[in-house]
Amino acid sequence: MNSSKRRRSKKAATAGAVLLAVMLATSACGSTNANNANPGNEQQGTVEEGPEISQLPEESGMLDPNVSSPEPTETPANSGGIEEPADPVKVNEGTYSGLSDSHSIEIETASGTLPLQITEDLKSKLEALPDDAKVKFEYTEKAIEGEANLKQNWLVNIEEIK
User: Fold this and answer.
1) Per-position DSSP letters for 113-140, written without gaps between them
2) CB-based contacts of 138, cutoff 8 Å, min separation 6
3) Domain 95-160, CATH number (from 2.40.50, 1.20.120, 1.20.1530, 2.30.230)
4) Which of 22, 47, 61, 92 has its CA 20 to 30 A from that of 76?
5) What average pLDDT does range 128-146 have in this prediction?
């Protein structure tokens, strides 16, 4: 009889551990909205329906083949906001070191190594350049979003000096 109590005790402990694990997994993977009532939505579960509209408008949206369509006019592109001034282009000379990764290069200048971000358009031009080539390049400094003091250098143009 003593061994059956041990078995029951082991089974109960195992069942308790499994139950605890399932409860923890369920609470961790459960919906986060269950306990967080939306304070802005006080009329939960109520829907007000408006009057049913049974009349259709006169225009069907189809063009009459006998009427010519108006000529499209060009409207100036206006984003409605203040345009930011273009970043000034800087010109420098140095020694092309090569690609440092898939989207940036390094150029040794008189003031030190300058990392430059590149675009897909410039990759073919850069692949034609040999390593350690003397180059003249143009670049801009762009501020990193959210970090006013940090800037990235972006390559605009590069050509080998012979």
Assistant:
1) EEEEE--HHHHHHHHTSPTTEEEEEEEE
2) 89, 90, 91, 155, 156, 157, 158
3) 2.40.50
4) 61
5) 90
